[in-house]
């Protein structure tokens, strides 16, 4: 059952389903991602004219021939492995549009994180959702309004799905802060509908 986290008058919508994946598909997908873990790379983030290593590892999956620059980096996309493809198809049904790209973050432990940012939507199909599937260690996810004093925190459970839609990226930033003491790793998959260029 999905919970509404944000439903603002200006069109920001965030929904959360803690039990999106049943234990079977959840461990199958976790095993599949763990199997391709050697393809994961340090993300290179361009900030203030410098290129820095990100505090997490990343890997991208996508349709054949898809070209997508994320955070200033052209990333090779790997073909969809079967369980990831199955999850993508279920999420496409739920959101009512296809997804052709998935960016997977690997947080090796509680020291890995992602800082405050909004996802770039100009490369995405207009009106499409960003769907975020979590596997492994539960980690708190934070959303903060850019102009108002509004903050939300959701503990993203293994097998959960968080969907950000509407004007969410325009009005909110989000982050996954460091969590000292977490020793288990976490995969996060954000499914996106990249606009054909
Ligand atoms: O790991 C998460 O839950 C968030 C990832 C994220 O915000 C991103 O990849 O843009
Ligand atoms: Fe993001």
TrEMBL record:
Keyword annotations: Dioxygenase, Oxidoreductase
InterPro entries cross-referenced by the UniProt entry: AlkB-like, AlkB-like_sf, ALKBH3, Oxoglu/Fe-dep_dioxygenase_dom
Stored Pfam families: 2OG-FeII_Oxy_2
UniProt cross-references to Gene3D superfamilies, sorted A to Z: Alpha-ketoglutarate-dependent dioxygenase AlkB-like
GO molecular function term, any single one: dioxygenase activity
Domain Fe2OG dioxygenase: 98-195
Name assigned to this protein: Alpha-ketoglutarate-dependent dioxygenase AlkB
Annotated source species: Nannocystis bainbridge
Species classification: Bacteria, Pseudomonadati, Myxococcota, Polyangia, Nannocystales
């Amino acid at each position: 059952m999905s919970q509404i986290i944000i439903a603002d008058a200006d069109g920001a919508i965030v929904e959360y389903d803690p039990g999106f994946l049943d234990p079977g598909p959840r461990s199958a997908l976790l095993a599949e991602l763990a199997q391709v873990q050697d393809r994961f790379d340090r993300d290179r983030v361009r900030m203030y004219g410098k290129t820095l290593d990100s505090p997490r590892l990343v890997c991208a999956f996508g349709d054949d021939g898809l070209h997508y620059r994320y955070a200033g980096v052209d990333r090779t996309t790997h073909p969809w492995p079967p369980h990831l493809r199955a999850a993508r198809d279920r999420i496409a049904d739920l959101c009512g549009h296809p997804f052709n790209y998935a960016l997977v973050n690997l947080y090796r432990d509680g020291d890995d994180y992602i800082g405050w940012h909004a996802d770039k939507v100009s490369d995405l199909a207009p009106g499409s959702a960003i769907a975020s599937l979590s596997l492994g260690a539960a980690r708190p996810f934070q959303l903060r309004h850019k102009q108002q004093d509004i903050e939300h925190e959701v503990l993203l459970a293994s097998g959960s799905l968080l969907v950000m839609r509407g004007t969410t990226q325009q009005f909110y930033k989000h982050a996954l802060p460091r969590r000292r003491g977490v020793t288990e790793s976490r995969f996060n998959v954000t499914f996106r509908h990249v606009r054909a260029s």
